[in-house]
Amino acid sequence: MKRELAPYAVLPPCPVTVVCTYDSLDKPNGLAVSWTGIAVSDPPHIMIAVRPGRYSHAALCERKEFTMNIPSESQMREADYFGITSGRKTDKFADLGLTPVPAKHVHAPTIAEFPLSLECRVVSQQEIGTHSIFIAEILAVHADESILDEKNNIDVAAMRPISYDHAKFLYVGQGPVLGKAFSVGKELKK
C-alpha cells in the first residue's frame, strides 16, 4: 500500500553535473547542479534550475552560455566541492587542481578531467518559485574516448556517472544493466 507524503522535490535519481561559466572577470567557475534533465531531444535541449543567490546565476543570466560537465564516481568529491564552495570567495578550479578548457562553441570552460562535457546556449529563462529555470540547446558534446563504445556511443557503464539522492543527501553510483530499453517490455505484449 502506498503512503501519501507531503509534496517535495523528488524524482530519483538526479544526475550530478557541474555547470561551468566565466564570471564577470572571465574567471572560470563551476556550480554543482542536480536539478536538470533533457527538455527536448530534437534539437537537443537540456534544462537546469539554479537559485538566484548562487554566484553562477549572474553569469548564466548575462552570458546565456554554459557547459555541463558530468563527473564519474571517482570525481564525486570534486563535484561536491563545486556545490559547497562559492566562486565569490575562491577559484574552485585552482583549489581542485582541475583544468578549465575553453569550449569551442560557447564562451564557457569545460572541465578537462571530467569524462563528458556539453556546450550549451540558453534559449529560454523562467523564474519559478525559488529557482530560475534555464532551457539551453546542446551545441556540442565532448566525450573522453574511454567512455565510448565501438560505435562512438557513450557507454554509461564505462563512464560510471553518479546520481544525487535528495531525500537522504547521498551520492549513488550506477548499478548493473537490467535490460534493453524498448525491448524488455515486448515480453508482456499479447
TrEMBL record:
Pfam families linked: Flavin_Reduct
Protein species of origin: Methanorbis rubei
Keyword Flavoprotein: yes
Keyword annotations of the record: Flavoprotein
Transmembrane segments: none
Family: Belongs to the flavoredoxin family.
Gene Ontology MF term list: FMN binding
Full protein name: Flavoredoxin
